Amino acid sequence: QCGFTFTREVVVGSTIADFACKTRWLVVELGGTDGAEATLAALSDRKLQDVGVRVMRFAEARVIEETDAVVAEIKAELQ
């Protein structure tokens, strides 16, 4: 839907990303927005950002409930 190719569960550096658009250096991650999981997610995000990869993280519930809005945000980031 975004006009770009994403690969699912791809190794990016020392992280396995949920979705990655390698041509645009963008990773989309689901979850990791609450509690202890958020701490690990923040560390993972920082590692990716340190090597120039942009990271977008969305709560799973938001993706399910607001799919169009999430896709619009990803499209905006890609452009």
What does this protein look like?
The protein is globular, with a radius of gyration of 12 Å. The longest helix is centred in the middle third of the chain and has 16 residues, at 35-50. 43% of the residues lie in helices and 29% in strands. The chain is built from three helices and four strands; from the N terminus they run βββαβαα.
Basic shape: globular
Structural category is: alpha+beta
Low-confidence stretches: none
The major beta sheet can be summarized as: 4 strands, mixed
Helix coverage percent: 40-55%
Using DSSP, what is the number of strands? 4
Order of helices and strands: EEEHEHH
- Alpha-carbon distance between the termini? 14 Å
Residue-averaged pLDDT, rounded? 91
- Please state how the strands of the largest beta sheet are arranged side by side: 1-2-3-4
Short structural description:
The chain is α+β, with helices and mostly antiparallel strands. 43% of the residues lie in helices and 29% in strands.
List the helices and strands and how they pair.
Blueprint lengths: L6 E6 L2 E7 L4 E5 L4 H16 L3 E5 L1 H6 L1 H12 L1
Parallel strand pairs: 3-4
Antiparallel strand pairs: 1-2, 2-3
Features:
single chain; 79 residues; 4-stranded mixed beta sheet
